[in-house]
Write a structure and sequence with these properties.
about 60% helix
């Protein structure tokens, strides 16, 4: 396509695109729509499909021109974005819509949101203090009380047989007595607690890294991502014959609160995504074609998707991006988290 457009960076996160829908393309699309209308119009006194053009056109021209705009503008913009290699992170914002007149070009101005450039901060400034917390006796006793009231345990409480039965229920292998059961329960609770504290420390390190890299996500991107999450969840609820309000009531929250949480989650997810891509780039982390094949084979073994999906280039690139970010995250933790003693 001839370059009948201009692009201008008007902010770190915004590019202005001006382009023209030429009269020839507008007229061609308009005539197609009008002819379809003429074929399907049935007015009194005329056979279907032979209604005079002027009668239909006088009523439908504004509507048809607007439909032409809705068809041609996104296609033209998509072509420009692809040609200029612009990575959109939100829906484009059309500025003033001009008066639509048949026989004239349509000039449009669109603002598109892009991710600003960020520089990796000094990761040596990240301070993570190892956290530890011992399991309390009360926590173990709470589990024991729950076991004692569990109707699935049929043997005499406190006996060795009961301890073995309770251990089997909890998927604990070594527990011959009540005391041994308590010891094993303590180990399980401690492992869970250690995992939670470790995850909290990792999240803290990631938050510091994002702040040090001064990553600020443009609002339009956050709103767009949050809207997509809300739309997807709403679609799930439709399958359950439930409205958003009804679901909110079952959770004891308001829809407004849910929207706030979607925005919060969207912001954090985008910040993490940007940081991990940046970290991968700075550290030279890549996923080769051979490594990608290995990851795809792993997915094949754990999922029952249609074979066509595995050969889809877009899906394969999605797996590459997921793998890249996972490796970046693992390397980040290796670099900044305190070493285990």
């Amino acid at each position: 396509m001839d370059k009948k457009y201009t692009t201008k960076q008007i902010a770190s996160d915004t590019i202005e695109i001006k382009f023209t829908l030429e009269n020839s393309a507008v007229t061609k699309s308009y005539e197609t729509l009008l002819n379809n209308e003429l074929k399907n119009t049935n007015l009194k006194g005329f056979r279907k499909g032979v209604t005079p053009r002027e009668l239909v056109e006088s009523k439908l021209q504004p509507q048809l021109l607007f439909e032409v705009l809705n068809r041609l503008a996104p296609l033209t913009l998509s072509s420009i974005v692809s040609k200029e290699k612009i990575n959109l992170i939100a829906a484009p914002e059309y500025k003033e819509i001009p008066n639509l007149e048949l026989g004239k070009n349509i000039d449009l101005t669109v603002h598109v949101t892009v991710m600003p450039e960020f520089k990796l901060g000094n990761m040596k400034k990240i301070k993570v203090t190892p956290k530890s917390e011992k399991v309390k006796v009360e926590e173990v006793e709470k589990i024991m009380t729950q076991l004692e009231s569990n109707p699935n345990l049929k043997t005499k409480k406190g006996s060795k047989a009961w301890a073995k039965e309770a251990a089997k229920l909890l998927q604990i292998e070594k527990a011959e007595t009540v005391e041994e059961l308590k010891v094993e329960i303590t180990k399980v609770l401690q492992a869970e607690k250690d995992n939670i504290l470790r995850k909290q420390s990792e999240n803290d390190a990631l938050s510091q890294a994002i702040a040090l890299s001064k990553i600020v996500i443009p609002d339009p991107a956050i709103h767009y991502e949050a809207h997509e999450r809300q739309h997807s969840f709403g679609h799930q609820l439709e399958g359950m014959n439930m409205t958003m309000d009804q679901y909110a009531k079952t959770q004891g929250v308001t829809v407004e609160h849910m929207v706030e949480m979607w925005h919060k989650d969207a912001k954090e997810a985008l910040e993490t995504d940007v940081f991990l891509k940046l970290y991968a780039k700075e550290k030279g982390i890549k996923v080769s074609d051979e490594e990608l094949k290995i990851e795809i084979e792993k997915v094949k073994k754990s999922n029952n998707q249609t074979p066509e999906l595995y050969d889809n280039p877009e899906w394969q690139e999605y797996i590459r991006r997921v793998t890249l970010k996972q490796r970046a995250y693992e390397q980040f933790l290796k670099d900044v988290m305190p070493k285990s003693k």
